[in-house]
Amino acid sequence: MVSTSSQTLVNGRATAQVAALDRGLSYGDGVFRTLRVDGGRPCWWGEHLDKLKEDCRRLGLACPPPAVWEQDLGRLDLPASGVVRLTVTRGEAPRGYAPPPHSQSTRIVTVWPHEHAPLSEEGITARVCHLRLGHQPALAGVKHLNRLENVLARAEWQDADIREGILLDQPGQVVGGVMSNLFLWHGGRLRTPRLDKCGVAGVARARLMAAATRAGYRVEETELTLGDVYAADELFFTNSLILLWRVARLENRSWGTPVVSQALWELLHA
Amino acid sequence: MVSTSSQTLVNGRATAQVAALDRGLSYGDGVFRTLRVDGGRPCWWGEHLDKLKEDCRRLGLACPPPAVWEQDLGRLDLPASGVVRLTVTRGEAPRGYAPPPHSQSTRIVTVWPHEHAPLSEEGITARVCHLRLGHQPALAGVKHLNRLENVLARAEWQDADIREGILLDQPGQVVGGVMSNLFLWHGGRLRTPRLDKCGVAGVARARLMAAATRAGYRVEETELTLGDVYAADELFFTNSLILLWRVARLENRSWGTPVVSQALWELLHA
After folding, report:
1. Which residues of A touch B143 (CB under 8 A)?
2. Does residue A175 surpass a pLDDT of 80?
3. Cβ separation of B25 and A27 shorter than 8 Å?
4. C-alpha distances out from residue B83 to A78, A100, B5, B37, B74, Å
5. How far apart are CA A248 and CA A126, in angstroms?
């Protein structure tokens, strides 16, 4: 049986409720992952669990082991095509920022059915966001639950034709997309912003960098300006759900027939 | 009857549970207030509701009107001495950073019994935190649910004798305490950091600035360095629960008999 609406487990129990005093809600004290489900199976499972564990380590959170997550998934009806969200919080606790010495993490698994779009031949329209990300090296790269900057940036537009926004940091360096990472192809090199001051380092980004390197592309993590973005030969966003979106239009700039986007999409889709 | 443990209402219902898909948990998409209860009544009620409304406006959140909060409080057993937390989130929603066009806010009220300490004659011990706050003018001053910086800063020490930590921003300017605002008394002036780039502008801070101005003190919101802090004649933290804590020791610096702390505490306690 395939469910048509979301299903949720909290600490392995079939419930859509969490404690009102969970630190995930009180302070955004936790991390999460969003995975693509294809053919009834979560994609890039090992990489996502590795990243979840690493993000938990960054916050000093206990991360449930893979077997526990796999047991949870086994109890849900995974749709043929869908999305899984895994969340770990520092659990229920009384008031106060100090992490309790013996906190019990809360784990939440939610599954939604979702039709993943095929590679867009014509490419997408994007914009540049006004909101600029603050620098916080202690949290840079981590997909934590403090996502108000992303919420405010995404709230800047309602036009459904605009599919993604580019985020800069306070000094004006390019960081990525609101819900994705950004790559540009320029002068025979694949370039993506370094994420040591802010931004989220996605699993799709890591996979694309590794696969492209193996395939012989020159790949660079570097500082990038908006000028570099407009000067690029090709531009694309990646995340675990969309895989890769080629940008056809960004503000007043448009790009013609792509050369490498299709090949890179295939590297990710493999 | 006075309860000895916490009591919670979610949207007016007596439950300690919220939806696992509430955006307050998914993204920290919400704001909160922490109030002191004295003599069975919440202190500075009007100011706290004004600040809650203003913080909701900053995030584009619908804020429940005062009558709704008052109805909630009327249904709880307020302890003689305690704490109330009010939380507003953007409510339950499907995946995605975009705020839903017709979101229904979630409101949460929790009450705890708590004995408030009297003014500490001897003063407290404080430290300087390693974590430095990132600049985010779009969120500066707002008491939102994205509090991981405070959690990480508070996790830096376990020594129960250290009651509070001082937070600097990335360039090294002083912002405040981990859970409080900071004031210093120097050369006959009461000085507190400007909060236009980061930090939380507390109700106790606003009240103290207004009351001290009325009482004839010179009050300044300004840029402050750690050098200014060490050079101060007196130093204190304020928030709605502690009211005012005088600092007796900060790292290797200590302060002797205070001159204005008692008078300022009385201004706040009035």
Report:
1. none
2. yes
3. no
4. 43, 19, 11, 5, 15
5. 8
Share of chain A above pLDDT 70, in %: 99
B181 φ/ψ sector (left φ>0, alpha ψ -120 to 50, else beta): beta
Q: B-chain residues within 8 Å CB-CB of A108?
A: 20
- When pLDDT is averaged across residues A228-239 and rounded to a whole number, the result is 98
Mapped to the 3 state alphabet, what secondary structure does B36-99 carry? EEECCEECCHHHHHHHHHHHHHHHCCCCCCHHHHHHHHHCCCCCCEEEEEEEEECCECCCCCCC
Residue of B nearest to A90 (CA): B151
Distance from CA of A164 to the nearest CA of B (A): 11
The C-alpha R_g of chain A, in whole angstroms, comes to: 19
Average pLDDT over residues B184-195: 97
User: Do the chains contact at B145 and A27, CB–CB below 8 Å?
Assistant: yes
Query: Mean pLDDT in chain B?
Result: 96
List chain B residues with CB under 8 Å of A17. Answer: 17-20
Please give the Cα distance from B12 to B18 (Å, whole number).
12
Q: Check A134 against B131: CB less than 8 A apart.
A: no
| Nearest partner of B61 among B34, B7, B23, judged by Cα | B23
| B44-61 residue pLDDT tens | 999 999 999 999 999 999
A18, A139, A147 ranked by CB distance to B17: nearest: A18
Is residue B1 pLDDT above 60, yes or no? Answer: no
Residues near B220 by Cβ (< 8 Å), separated by ≥ 6? B189, B190, B191, B192
Chain B closest-CA separation from residue A64 CA (Å): 18
Could you give the percent of chain A with pLDDT greater than 90? Answer: 91
A47: which residues sit within 8 A by CB, 6+ positions away?
A203, A206, A207
- State phi, psi for A71 to the nearest 5 degrees: -65, -45
pTM strictly above 0.90: yes
Closest CA to A55 of A90, A25, A27: A90
Which tokens in the block code for residue B53? 């409304």
Residue range A37-90, pLDDT digits in tens? 999 999 999 999 999 999 999 999 999 999 999 999 999 999 999 999 999 999
Non-local CB neighbours of A64 within 8 Å, separated by 6+ positions:
A88, A105, A107
Residue A214 Cα, gap to closest chain B Cα (Å): 33
pLDDT at A4: 59
Does the pLDDT of residue A1 top 80, yes or no?
no
Q: Are B146 and A28 in contact (CB under 8 A)?
A: yes
CA dist., res. B166 & res. B174, Å (int)? 7
Q: Given a cut of 70, is residue A124 above it in pLDDT?
A: yes
Residues of A in contact with B146 (CB under 8 A): 27-28, 146-148
The domains located in chain B, with CATH, are 7-113 (3.30.470.10), 124-269 (3.20.10.10)
